[in-house]
Amino acid sequence: MASMNATEPPTARPLRLDTAQSDFEATFAQRLHWSADTDAAFEARVADILADVRARGDAAVLDYTQRFDALPAASVAELEIDPATLRAAFEALPAAQRDALQQAAARIRRYHEAQLEACGRSWQYRDDDGTLLGQKVTPLDRVGIYVPGGKAAYPSSVLMNAIPAHVAGVGEIIMVVPTPRGERNMLVLAAAHVAGVTRAFTIGGAQAVAALAYGTATVPPVDKITGPGNAYVAAAKRRVFGTVGIDMIAGPSEILVLADGSTPPDWVAMDLFSQAEHDELAQSILLCPDAAYLDAVQAAIDRLLPTLPRAAIIAASLNGRGMLVRTRSMEEACALSNRIAPEHLEVASREPQRWEPLLKHAGAIFLGAYTSESLGDYCAGPNHVLPTSGTARFSSPLGVYDFQKRSSLIEVSADGAQRLGRIASVLAHGEGLQAHARAAELRLEDQP
Amino acid sequence: MASMNATEPPTARPLRLDTAQSDFEATFAQRLHWSADTDAAFEARVADILADVRARGDAAVLDYTQRFDALPAASVAELEIDPATLRAAFEALPAAQRDALQQAAARIRRYHEAQLEACGRSWQYRDDDGTLLGQKVTPLDRVGIYVPGGKAAYPSSVLMNAIPAHVAGVGEIIMVVPTPRGERNMLVLAAAHVAGVTRAFTIGGAQAVAALAYGTATVPPVDKITGPGNAYVAAAKRRVFGTVGIDMIAGPSEILVLADGSTPPDWVAMDLFSQAEHDELAQSILLCPDAAYLDAVQAAIDRLLPTLPRAAIIAASLNGRGMLVRTRSMEEACALSNRIAPEHLEVASREPQRWEPLLKHAGAIFLGAYTSESLGDYCAGPNHVLPTSGTARFSSPLGVYDFQKRSSLIEVSADGAQRLGRIASVLAHGEGLQAHARAAELRLEDQP
């Protein structure tokens, strides 16, 4: 943890780099590096918790909840929060928070409904011979949503995980949220009400992941588990992958800002802060061809940092992992961004639509000066669960598609079976799978 | 391994069950059970191979290839098969195999192009205030395809993995295929040519997965690895998940046939065989309300089994894991199928469209008597890489979508920033993230 000195305000000096420096590549690569490697002893502890919950069910969940969350209970049923309690939490909120939650939820819902419409529907076509081919898209039956408790309790995460599941048509949405020493976050409970959570349990850690994956007498087994968590949760999710589906394992949050110098430096500084304030490992990077603009952002950092309550965390993040990089051009900045494949990518430019087509890999792309990442985090509509640590090279924001699955549909006509049977027979014999060949040949009118 | 007795042909007696039996649930559940659990020593061996390839690159790949595949080489470059060799393998095939490969590839390509059209395109919309929201869909840059060698060398797998990647627009498709003692399967090489593989290496096992995930001096690092393999390959894929994307870890292959008694029993028996011949752990299940029909299928099994070259494997699979289950009704059979979530689901009925809407979870659904699973395996068009072991509850056939990723697009207008900024500010303060709030507030015309 960063320490704050009561007399001197923290200072933040993101590393200044220039792509024209001879040692740029090595320095840049080293600063980017982050690894989630855990040791074998840690892995074994997680494996033990999973095995224990699988074997002992509710009793094991109770033990670990008492041990890790200091939350004693006589039964897991006592750890369930009923829907009336979720609703009451919502109704007890100040009007401004109630409205903000509802408006954010409505916008997130609308976006994910558009996503369902664009890419989540069944489709089919027929060949000339009447053979039908297609895919049927159906929702998952039941999913589990992990919501972190304690200092990182984010009601917006509840909206972002539960709403896409709800829009997809998932039958039951089970939320788990640890409540250390019984402290409940009322905004989290209210968000669960707004987002359509079906059942909620105040359990967390690897034991909650195990309960959702295997089921216990009280916690129903789910088909998929999504949502962020600490190292125990991440390791547990990785281990139950296959028994259930999981979303991507998240690393520290990151922002990359591409700037052409047209956005007020204060705005960009605050956007870098808003990533850095998550935790000391978060990474904020600014790429810009204009060295004077980088100076202006640094000056804004110096001026604005002391005004923020989380200044110590921000300073630790920027000093440890932040970078202000002068590039030769905006084109080079775009190419560098593609190598990083950032979670959040802001295009702080007066011509964002000029650069957008050059950007291939990113979780979310925020175009233009007005599109602060924080608007996307809460209420623009798109999901804030995004691929981190370069995984945007191969993975996508959480979406309706994560709560659906597809089944191929094939109905071969009698005519189609004649044409296809001959092809299948040749290939099956070529692979030495004669029963496959015979199954195709039995459907031929002129059997070989 | 099953043993063949030269004098007595193998017999296959799938377990006969009736859903009305009192012990049905327990017996059925026990017979369904399959676990991929591996021990810690095995996991450690795989971890060591991965770490070694990560550290020593090509040299480690060469060592393991010599040790495990008895294939010595002076460099990994020697293990690359150039495109001309792939083409030559294709051109040297008998005409019937060449044609079958090309026709299968054309049909698989057409299906995946329809899939791209139906669910793989970018989309966007604008709010009244001009704010743009959407998602940009882009292909992965480079993927790796694992193709098993040795006895289970399946050219159809090359088509099924490479064609969706090619249709998605993936820039480079790197194939790895072990060639124990240097034995190359010409159909596999020819299929790589037909499917548009970019580069091919004769390496396999955990070392090939490591080379693709981390890259070596010779093997380029990829963004995602797909394709089936043995326990080493599966464990290695699971471990590199996060560094690269992976497809589902496959268990033994399965078929479930729902029959109303209208399909010739010989056809259904051969379809059960065509799954069972894959390996002794493969599972074939027939559900039917008509006991006499189950008798007729058993008689067909008895008559047809001795005619098949792989009779011993088929018998071992059916005797160890096969089931013929009498259900109370077709409706009950559909409900049971949903609990199993089979990889392959045949609806051997004269009214397949009546039952299809009742079927929620399956990798691929084969409708009607003419639609043998083997037609789908090779050439109907849909992918034969399907979720196994009940994972169809939450996952999908391999498809174009596995070789694409999505980036959210957000461009908030100046007007939009006023409305959204107020919502984001309330929620960010509620989460204690003041820099997030300030970033939104800086864009307000009337700053609080």
From TrEMBL, chains A, B:
PROSITE patterns in the cross-refs: HISOL_DEHYDROGENASE
GO cellular component, one term: cytosol
Statement: the UniProt record of this protein carries the keyword Zinc: yes
Cofactor remark from the record: Binds 1 zinc ion per subunit.
Residues reported in the UniProt entry to bind substrate: 253, 275, 278, 344, 377, 431, 436
Active-site residues per Swiss-Prot or TrEMBL entry: 343 (proton acceptor), 344 (proton acceptor)
Reactions this protein catalyses: L-histidinol + 2 NAD(+) + H2O = L-histidine + 2 NADH + 3 H(+)
Alphabetical UniProt keywords: Amino-acid biosynthesis, Histidine biosynthesis, Metal-binding, NAD, Oxidoreductase, Zinc
Family: Belongs to the histidinol dehydrogenase family.
The protein's name: Histidinol dehydrogenase
Organism: Tepidimonas aquatica
